[in-house]
Amino acid sequence: MANANAFDVTIVGGGMITNDLLLPSIYHLQRLGVVGEISICALNNRPLRALKENPQFAKAFPGQDFAAHPALNKAGEQDFPELYKEVLAKMPPYNAVVVAMPDQLHYPVVMEALNNNQHVLCVKPLVLKYVQAVEVEELAREKGLFVGVEYHKRFDRRALIARGHYEQGHFGDFVMGEAKLIEPYLYRHSNFQNWFTCENTDPFVYIGCHYVDLTYFITGLKPVGVSVHGVKGTFPNGNVGYLWSQGRVVFENDAVLSVINGLGYPDEGAGPNEQGLVLYCEGPGKTGLIQHNDQFRGVSHSYMEGLGPGGTVFNFVNPDFFQLGPWEGPGNKPMGYGYDSVAANLGSIGRMRAETAGLPEADALAKRRGIITEIDEKRLIATPANSSINELVTEAARMSILSEGEFVKIVYDGFPRIEPRG
User: Fold this and answer.
1) Mean pLDDT of 226-252
2) What pTM was computed for the model?
3) Domains of the chain as residue ranges with CATH
């Protein structure tokens, strides 16, 4: 359906998260009239060809397509590392850029988008240093541009219910917890082996950040210290990375969260990964408990053929994160909190366009800034202003893991920063 306030979207990055979540979500928003034209820019055209030839997309989103950069007629082995700059420079202002690059490349792409007057949705973590998060926040506020971070677990109904009860004091105060998120072994055979190396990132930073953010989202407690130990391994191409990690996050009330991560859930296992969160809480004369068994949500399928991540026949199915299913319209529609998160972030951009249509630029800028402040304060959609504790944790985690697990403090006096203990 036509929508005068629809905006174009350019996705920078054509890898796993674009295939599994971002593109199908944006395709659906396109047919709902929220999104206009879709472009995807990647290092080369190999992932773009795979996206265009995905039979699931042809079935779920008949007739929908995207513009590929580089074009598919370019040589597949030819790389274009600076092409995204050309693509973003050609976009009219106040459209949207979705950043889906490896962790260490988020900052330059986000800044390039903002400098070209584009709203931004970035996969987590936003950046790897707190000072960069502040820079992003300040530039976006100056220009009245929305920046969202795709911490989709904030939109899990379990998290929303837990936060509501926590805010009412129904659990007491968080004191001790454990989180785990182990991704499948097959990640080691993907493009991860080209960038998931020791000098760039680690499992705590890449996926552990989800549960650190979720604990902060539920409790409102700030982390004040981090230690992370990593276990190195070799990818099939010979690159060395941290394939496992164990982190300890201390919060401002002296609560502790243990975080276990890795790229090693068995491909033959029933689930696509293993994940969950347990928070123990203390109250007057009793304790409270929040427990989310996220790897198994009560749905099991046994197929005639192997359809699981490693070709497994028996599968634990997660109906809550992201699935494609029948609906009243053509093809299939995305369902789950992964889609809800993308829709909420991009919907905020649509709201800005609708509420500033026809206004003089000075009035439009003031209106956009007001909407940004409202989103920041609501603390549902992750933004640089309400989720930058994650950049402090990320920065501390990188210092810790590279110094063999030394405890690193997070200090909030004055300009927030990290400091080695002692």
Assistant:
1) 98
2) 0.95
3) 7-153+332-384 (3.40.50.720), 157-320+391-420 (3.30.360.10)
